[in-house]
Amino acid sequence: MVRRITSSPLTLIGLVIVLIIIVCALFAPLIATHSPTEVNLQSKLEAPSTSHYFGTDEVGRDIFSRIVYGTRISLRIGLLVVLIAFPIGTILGAIAGYFGGGVDQIIMRITDVFLSFPGIILAMSIAAALGPSIENVMLALAATWWPWYTRIVRSSVLSIKNAEFIEASRALGANPFRILFKEIIPNSIGPATIQASLDLGFVILAAAGLSFIGLGAQPPSPEWGAMLSNSREILRDAWWAATFPGLAILLTVLGFNLVGDGLNDVLDPKQR
Amino acid sequence: MDVLKFVAKRLLLMIPILIGISMLTFAISNTIPGDPARLILGPKATPEGLESLREKMGLNDPLYIQYGRYMVGITHGDLGESTYSQGPVSSDLIRYSPATFELTLFAMMITLLIGIPFGIISASKKDRMADHFTRLFSLLGVAMPAFWLGLLFLLLFYLKLGILPGSGRLDSGMSPPHHITGMYTIDALLTGNWTVLLSASMHLILPGITLAAVTIGMITRMTRSSMLEVLQSDYVRTAHAKGASENRVLYGHALRNGVMPVITLLGMAFGHALGGSVLVESVFSWPGLGKYAVNAITYLDFPAVMGVTLLIAVMFILVNLIVDTLYFFIDPRLKHN
Hints:
The structure holds two protein chains of two kinds. Chain A is mainly alpha-helical. Chain A has helices at residues 2-7, 9-26, 28-31, 63-99, 101-115, 119-130, 134-160, 164-171, 176-188, 190-212, 224-231, 239-267. Chain A has one domain: MetI-like (MetI-like fold). The mean pLDDT of chain A is 90. By secondary structure, chain B is mostly helical. Chain B has a domain at 101-299: MetI-like fold. Chain B is 77% helix and 0% strand. Chain B is built from 14 helices and no strands. In chain B, helix 5 packs across helix 9 (194-231). Chain B starts with a helix and ends with a helix. In chain B, 38% of the residues are buried. Classes of the chains: A mainly alpha, B mainly alpha.
């Protein structure tokens, strides 16, 4: 399996990007060359140089160091949102698929309602109602994201629920919830897991978007979307302030996307 | 089954979804932390004053009565008062939605004009240079933060090169064309106002391409995989075997079946563009729903935010209905089903 993952150059690039991001997050204080929040008016709006790799912003903060510390914020958002949305969506999807009938109807109509909003719009209104903060953006994104897992898991549960090994547990008289958690869910979360790895990137992208419009991370937090929002004021004087944080977002989303696609190719033999 | 029956059935199915949407937006409106009466009266309010305002606003009624009142309001087009514009939210929405519609429609047009040909080329030249290039391009599109791309475009085409306008819908000092649809390019075209048409089109280019970047990626990917599937099918092999030329097979036999499934994705792409307009409009100061919503967030104007949310959800559902109907016309199998 490992060989199959590493044999695709694109997946390999994705893995390298994800690794770099994780390393930046874990060792931010060692990698950053300056403090991410320290104001230094003497060196404001400096272009990229050997002392400030990505230049400085309007109050002289080092953009490279802010981006490095920003990996911590973005990874935390991505992981926590997926860790909230994934189990909720999975359990509901498994219940809907396995028990069917009225429960299925109710759960699926609720997911339909959530999915009839463009994701970012629903997240925006929830985050706006809760008030601007990173925690609220995470809640809003989790509330927006779970129905996708419900749909995916439900359809894979439907495809295995009459398989022989499930039939066997049922014949042995196993409790339905035991079957659900021990047999059904472990055997049907494959596709949802692939989706989760793609979503790590998309959640980070959405969170950056919400921070960009003033929800989410607040200044002086070195969050990438908030940095981009801030860079609009100095667009004319400092191209670097608008360029590098966005590049960080792009690469992060791309990295998780490539890894997700790679996993998909490995786990889904039809695609080969 | 004829089209009317199909549409009627879909409209009926929309009702529970619309009710669900109103319940969800009502629930969100009720999660605002703190007491709305206290927010309005401020910290110096007396307990009696708060109580009487709560009574007046109906905040003491049970939730289902409050929801009932909210529903009655919505069905009469009453979405509350915007605290920022000091007017009814519904008339703000009417004022701002043509700009968003114009921008999203333009973005969808670019998406189709670029996405579908790119997907076809990519599939027909599978694993060759053109294919690798298009796949990289669509991969970047899907991962692209649109608001960042917008900033880069502003930087390059507006600030550095100065060849394209970077904000608003018309050159400053120019008055909008006679109001017919509210979409400046279309109104200018209808009234034959060429200078306004030129200016309005120039203003559409940067925000339109920015908004389209993501959806182009989606459509290209979908066209490619659907075309590949068709190109591997038996009937295409038969066409090759009987000696049809490469182009004849591609455009005469494969194209129609290959592009058809892409239409089902159009609704989703449109929804994506509507969502993206919130970010892109605020980059380009495009005076549409997105810019209005972002302003509303800044001024804690909650009824306005919920109004935009509700309107965009309804537009999204309607677009999906239109797309499904379109598909019904194009795919003959559905008609005989």
